[in-house]
Amino acid sequence: MDGAVETGSADYALAERAHAALRAEGATVAVAESLTGGLLAAALVDVPGASATFRGSVTAYATALKASVLGVDEGLLDVYGPVHPVVAAQMAEGVRRLLGATYGLATTGVAGPEPQDGRPVGTVHLAVAGPGGSLVTSPRLSGARATIRHGAVTAALELLVAEVAR
Predict the structure, then answer these.
(1) Residue 9 pLDDT
(2) What residues pair up with 29 in beta bridges, in sequence order?
């Protein structure tokens, strides 16, 4: 598979729901990705008409970019590393501000195959930042690297849909 989200798939349906919810509110979203490496943005742009609500994305895979581009606190990164709930929240807030979106959505975590900074494979932190503040969720995912990354996309889309509908 080339990374495209198949029409009729659960992620495609979630992305459609996200865009519909955003359109209903006159809102937009921007994405900051680490763990998912662009998969979340791809899922959102696979939906026809995505340009009406999707502002853009930053794939900040390198830890230093989380600070220099997205504004994540360097001290936080030094102490806890890039896989932390507050890092996810700051990534979401940073991309929201940077790209001028109503909502920022962020992913960070460990897809494997090895633990990172003492965090086990499957540790995932997702955040959405919007007009009402930030919300972080930390689903524990398991399976192969691709399974964890795709599971994070699904969970992030669910988080966005729930937050916009709130």
Answers:
(1) 85
(2) 54, 103
The 3-state DSSP composition of the chain as helix, strand, coil percent (nearest 5) reads: 45, 20, 35
- E strand or H helix at 128: strand 124-130
Q: Which residues pair with 54 in a beta bridge?
A: 29
Element (H, E) at 145: helix 145-165
Burial 129-159 (b: 16+ CB within 10 A, else e): bbeeebbbbbbebeeeeeebbbbbbbbbbbb
pLDDT along the chain (166 residues), means of 10: 61 96 98 98 97 98 97 98 98 98 98 95 98 96 97 98 95
Residue 33 DSSP label: E
| Side-by-side strand order, sheet with 29-33 | 54-59, 29-33, 103-109, 124-130, 133-137
Give the number of other Cβ atoms within 10 Å of residue 7's Cβ: 11
The full set of domains in the chain, from first to last, is 10-165 (3.90.950.20)
Provide DSSP, 42-83: HHHHTSTTGGGTEEEEEE--SHHHHHHTT---HHHHHHH-S-
